[in-house]
Amino acid sequence: MELRHLKYFLAVAEELNFTKAAEKLYISQPPLSRQIMELEDELQAKLFIRNNKKVELTEAGKYFEKEVKDLFQHLERISVKTKKIAENVSGEFRIAYISSIYSSVISELIQHLKEQFPYVNFKLFEISTTKQIEALEKGKIDLGIIRSPVKSPKIKSQLWFKDGFSVVFNKNFINIGSEKDIPNLENETFVFFNKDYAPHYHEVLLELCAFYGFTPKVVHESNNINSIVQLVKNGLGISIVPSNIAKNNQDSDLGFVELKKVNLFTDVSLITSKEDHSEITQLAVAFLLNKR
């Protein structure tokens, strides 16, 4: 079995059409069919059901497709790591983070790593938790900063800190004196994270409001915490944000009331690949853990 057999198989599995797969691979159809038959003979398993109307994967074929995709992802990670070793730990180190993490910590991390690895090109990406997990599984990032939970056998997750919640409002439009005023907000306009972008976080916000006895009137949504805070500053509503944001915001127009009565937190976690034991990754994680 050669790599070309696996590449040909994946092309057919994706297109479910031998003619289209052959065009995609820039070969003619007869050699492609012959290669697939050779692969099936070697495996002693039928991978496709073929007739005049359609091509389908067998159950064995579906299993083989999943495993081959995982194999190619693993080979890509091996290639990337080999290249880094050959370049004496130069190349790229890619860090993803959610928008609600205070950016100065990320800047400090880059500065610290740059001192240790001056030839590394650091890249930063602001990405949602769900997309970070997917990117890390595919080897597209090296370190992620997310809001838990994480459900992936390929990822190592370490708790960075537990974050509480605070109501944020513009003091020029509304006065929220203390936590006891929170139940009176049922008629106010709220700005929330988009539920499709951050479903778990969205559910937590609804739970918080339910604890205080009301369902929020969500009128505006955004996929970025800084945009949410800006909408609040512009008087378009109030919101509930991680207390981490409140602690690091110096805008005099904004007021924050921490929600202390409800015992509800989100875990901010650092995620890395279980296969990544590189010095730079370990150093990055250690630096952030010391910043808790």
TrEMBL record:
<protein>
    <submittedName>
        <fullName>LysR family transcriptional regulator</fullName>
    </submittedName>
</protein>
<dbReference type="Pfam" id="PF00126">
    <property type="entry name" value="HTH_1"/>
</dbReference>
<dbReference type="Pfam" id="PF03466">
    <property type="entry name" value="LysR_substrate"/>
</dbReference>
<feature type="domain" description="HTH lysR-type">
    <location>
        <begin position="1"/>
        <end position="58"/>
    </location>
</feature>
<keyword id="KW-0804">Transcription</keyword>
<keyword id="KW-0238">DNA-binding</keyword>
<dbReference type="InterPro" id="IPR036390">
    <property type="entry name" value="WH_DNA-bd_sf"/>
</dbReference>
<dbReference type="InterPro" id="IPR000847">
    <property type="entry name" value="LysR_HTH_N"/>
</dbReference>
<dbReference type="InterPro" id="IPR005119">
    <property type="entry name" value="LysR_subst-bd"/>
</dbReference>
<dbReference type="GO" id="GO:0032993">
    <property type="term" value="C:protein-DNA complex"/>
</dbReference>
<dbReference type="InterPro" id="IPR036388">
    <property type="entry name" value="WH-like_DNA-bd_sf"/>
</dbReference>
<dbReference type="GO" id="GO:0003677">
    <property type="term" value="F:DNA binding"/>
</dbReference>
<keyword id="KW-0805">Transcription regulation</keyword>
<dbReference type="GO" id="GO:0003700">
    <property type="term" value="F:DNA-binding transcription factor activity"/>
</dbReference>
<comment type="similarity">
    <text>Belongs to the LysR transcriptional regulatory family.</text>
</comment>
